[in-house]
Design brief:
single chain; 25 strands
């Protein structure tokens, strides 16, 4: 046993160390004395220098490398199986923990040093490389699981970057450079009094807060993530609604994301907020060519496959999240800027909510305040003082429920209140029902200081407003019918001519003909014009819609087209459309 085997500690702090043969690394949490030699707290390299003389015993030396840094556990990612180390240290009394991927020290280790120093680890700069050697030589017995995603983990815990709820055997893993989007300040009680209470009487604000909480139960009720889109003029209050939703999980300004990203960026933002809420401000910032594709991506919950340099598939990003979007235009209106036809699927995945023409624009009740501006200012100030508590409190209560069927049964009951006949509207009803359920659960848990029924009533009101706008039918049928009606309104006099004319009229880029039947004007489309009118849909799908809504006025027995003979000679087949039925 060498001279460093039995230390005593300064400041009446005792610490037992096992003897080791030099060279070795040691971590002293406190200032320590070993064989009458003092060592300040930190990671030390106890080395021995040998001379060239064969009889030399070597001269011991000691080097301070950095403040105390512990390698607490080996980590294994449940997302891609990669191995790492759980590193721990303190900075100004604040506990810091970081999961370091082992591949990060395959080279010089500079990236690891950047992260550690960026988090406040004090280092002996000339000897900084030895810190990497110290980490590499540590092989802890403890093994933990890690994940790159927030939210529910297969272990049953709920993972957040700054804490893990419901378990201690899993950690959140990132590069160490990610923005701290989850943050806590103030108190839950103050948030309840100064933020949540002022939402009462305001359906848009209630829905937004419920949307922020609903991500935590999507998994438990087997509902896929989608979104709601707050539509209203500039300065209507829709951005405030988003800030209140953001305050459930973090600072309103830093937790919210933006539409001003690529499709890959949307995937990263969604995955980093898995099982919480994805807030996307101002759809006008989105690429109109890609916005519908991004709406699909948010709802589908799986990122695009990518390859490594070795042509191996990377682990896909996945997420399960509700999105809360806003804008002066709807998603389809924004896509139309690029000339993109509206996709019913995208609109159903990001449904419009009126946040602009209520009693006070986005608000219905100002709680006695003089005007909407004062109401807006007070809520903005309060939500930036108190935030990050409600989401954590929600998860803590969810973890107490041991009956796996409880939430499924509760959702089934709540869903009955959102009655609809259309399967497509039913998927939207699922979304409003899960938001209503989250709100009512939070009321029951004492997180939201609202009367029972507040969340359900607000979500039901806004769902019915949406349903009254779009109807209970099939969205694709509506889009096709509207596209054909618009085409007739735009080109009826220029690209169609009267079939009864004895002489063929000269029509450039002809779409077909029209004829009068029993005082009604019917339009005879050729196949190419019909597909042009309803871009993005096949001829078969367009005809199916016409038959479904009763707008296919005439047809032959064996096919949907009708054969006509021209007075000027010849014959052709056309799809005969009754424009009145398109309404």
């Amino acid at each position: 046993m060498n001279q460093f085997a039995k230390p005593t500690a300064l400041n009446d702090t005792e610490q037992e160390l096992d003897g080791q043969e030099r060279p070795y690394y040691a971590v002293y949490e406190h200032n320590t004395i070993v064989d009458a030699k003092p060592y300040s707290s930190g990671v030390w390299f106890h080395g021995i220098k040998h001379s060239n003389h064969p009889d030399s015993e070597g001269v011991p030396f000691d080097e301070w490398l950095c403040a105390p840094l512990w390698v607490d556990a080996e980590t294994i990612s449940t997302d891609d199986g990669k191995v790492g180390r759980l590193l721990r240290f303190y900075h100004h009394g604040k506990f810091n923990e970081w999961v370091m991927p082992m591949e990060a020290i395959a080279g010089s280790g500079e990236e690891v040093l950047k992260v550690l120093m960026g988090k406040g680890l004090k280092v002996n700069y000339p000897l900084r490389r030895k810190i990497i050697s110290y980490i590499a030589l540590k092989h802890p017995q403890r093994i933990l699981e890690t994940t790159y995603k927030t939210g529910w983990h297969k272990s049953g815990a709920f993972v957040l970057p700054h804490q893990v709820l419901g378990g201690n055997q899993v950690r959140y893993q990132d590069s160490g450079k990610a923005a701290a989007i989850f943050a806590i300040q103030g108190t839950l009680a103050a948030w309840q009094k100064e933020v949540a209470l002022l939402c009462v009487g305001n359906p848009v604000l209630i829905l937004s807060v419920c949307c922020a909480l609903a991500g935590t139960i999507l998994f438990k009720v087997s509902v896929k993530g989608c979104g709601v889109h707050l539509v209203g003029d500039s300065s209507s209050g829709k951005s405030l609604a988003q800030e209140l939703a953001a305050s459930v999980w973090g600072h309103p300004e830093t937790f919210a994301a933006s539409w001003d990203v690529t499709k890959g960026g949307i995937e990263i933002e969604a995955a980093s907020r898995n099982d919480t809420v994805l807030i996307l401000d101002e759809i006008k910032r989105a690429d109109p060519y890609k916005v519908q594709e991004m709406a699909y991506a948010i709802a589908n919950g799986m990122g695009k496959s990518t390859m490594t340099r070795e042509r191996e598939g990377r682990a896909k990003l996945t997420w399960r999240v509700l999105a809360l979007s806003s804008g002066e235009r709807s998603l389809s209106e924004h896509a139309a800027i690029a000339g993109s036809p509206a996709h019913a699927g995208a609109e159903l995945r990001m449904v419009d909510v009126n946040a602009g023409t209520r009693t006070y624009k986005a608000f219905d009740y100002l709680h006695g305040l003089a005007n909407g501006q004062i109401f807006h200012g007070q809520l903005t100030k309060s939500s930036r003082k108190h935030y990050g508590h409600a989401g954590v409190a929600m998860v803590e209560h969810l973890l107490k429920q041991t009956d796996d069927n409880f939430y499924l049964n509760a959702f089934s009951e709540m869903r009955k209140a959102f009655d609809t006949q259309s399967p497509q509207a039913g998927r939207v009803a699922d979304r409003f029902a899960v938001m209503a359920l989250a709100g009512e659960l939070a009321i029951g848990y004492g997180i939201l200081p609202w009367p029972v029924g507040t969340a359900q009533n607000a979500c039901h009101l806004l769902f019915n407003e949406w349903l009254a706008t779009v109807g209970n039918g099939n969205s694709e049928d509506k889009q096709i019918a509207q596209a054909l009606a618009d085409f007739i309104a735009k080109h009826g006099d220029s690209r169609f001519s009267n079939m009864s004319d004895k002489y063929a009229a000269i029509v450039h880029n002809r779409a077909g003909y029209y004829r009068i039947e029993d005082g009604k004007k019917l339009y005879l489309f050729n196949n190419a014009a019909l597909k042009e009118a309803a871009q993005g849909y096949s001829l078969k799908r367009i005809i199916q819609t016409l038959e479904e809504i009763g707008a296919l006025a005439m047809k032959d027995a064996d096919r949907p087209q009708k054969k006509f003979r021209f007075p000027f000679g010849g014959a052709d087949r056309f799809i005969v459309v009754d424009p009145e039925k398109l309404e």
